[in-house]
Write a structure and sequence with these properties.
CATH class of the largest domain: Alpha Beta
Structural class: alpha/beta
GO molecular function, one term: methyltransferase activity
Organism: Phytobacter massiliensis
Number of strands: 7
CATH architecture of the largest domain: 3-Layer(aba) Sandwich
Strand content: 15-25%
Largest sheet: 7 strands, mixed
CATH topology of the largest domain: Rossmann fold
Number of helices: 8
InterPro entries: Methyltransf_25, Methyltransf_Superfamily, SAM-dependent_MTases_sf
Distance between the termini: 26 Å
Protein name: Methyltransferase domain-containing protein
CATH superfamily of the largest domain: Vaccinia Virus protein VP39
Order of helices and strands: HHEHEHEEHEHHHEE
Pfam families: Methyltransf_25 (PF13649)
């Protein structure tokens, strides 16, 4: 699925500001992610798939000053914002950015870790397993994978309760809240939400170790696994 119609220039420029109200969630996710990766080499090279505006890069670069980063994203507009933030932080010498997809990364370099945060729920479920195989091919032996996505069992008995809490989150700091039916429509038309167990199965099928489900905030889940 192409998301360039969503992540256009205007959206990209206001992305961070519009998501600032969710900063406690992202801060906790980034903190726990850094703990998951703390045993990587001091000169580790990290690949960020769907790097967006680069918040995970800035967070990890501050915690691990010897790490290098390669960020890939299909939206040139989001990358432009990312590049500006990286330069403002003075870490451009540690970062390479590429407009495109995993398969567009030239050469056969393998990475110590791959981050894929809030990306996979945009991929059609029938195609989603492929990204884990592509990631595995880009990882060193025993390399680490961190995945975060919106996930839910839409057939669960309490799904409407879960979606009401999700609606309250979306309305936080806003003047209006989406309805449960509007969220269901969004999940059907824009996001390919699947149960957490399905994501874990795809990771194992691609050859990763049993995923460690280390984070959940409402419908946002994150896992760590090793190649």
């Amino acid at each position: 699925m192409s998301t360039n119609d969503i992540f256009n220039s205007e959206f990209s420029r206001r992305y961070d500001a519009s998501n600032a109200r969710f900063s406690p969630i992202s801060a906790n996710l980034h903190f726990l992610m850094a703990l998951q990766l703390q045993d990587l080499p001091a000169d580790a090279h990290i690949l960020c798939v769907g790097v967006g505006t680069g918040n995970e890069v800035l967070s990890l670069a501050d915690s691990y000053p010897g790490w290098r980063f390669t960020g890939v994203d299909p939206s040139a507009d989001m990358l432009a914002v990312c590049d500006q933030k990286i330069r403002q932080a003075g870490i451009e010498h540690r970062c390479d950015l590429l407009a495109g997809y995993l398969e567009d990364i030239a050469g056969g370099e393998k990475f110590d870790a791959v981050l894929c945060l809030l990306v996979t729920h945009f991929i059609r479920q029938n195609d989603r397993g492929g990204i884990y195989h592509q990631i595995a091919a880009r990882l060193k032996t025993s390399g680490r994978l961190i995945v975060a996505e919106i996930a839910a069992d839409m057939a669960a008995d309490n799904i409407d309760d879960q979606l009401r809490r999700w609606a309250a989150l979306q309305a936080y700091g806003s003047t209006s809240a989406p309805t449960v039916e509007e969220i269901k429509q969004l999940f059907e038309e824009r996001l390919r939400v699947q149960p957490p167990a399905a994501t874990e199965a795809l990771m194992r099928d691609a050859g990763f170790s049993a995923p460690d489900h280390f984070f959940q905030s409402l419908l946002i889940h994150a896992w760590a696994a090793r190649k």
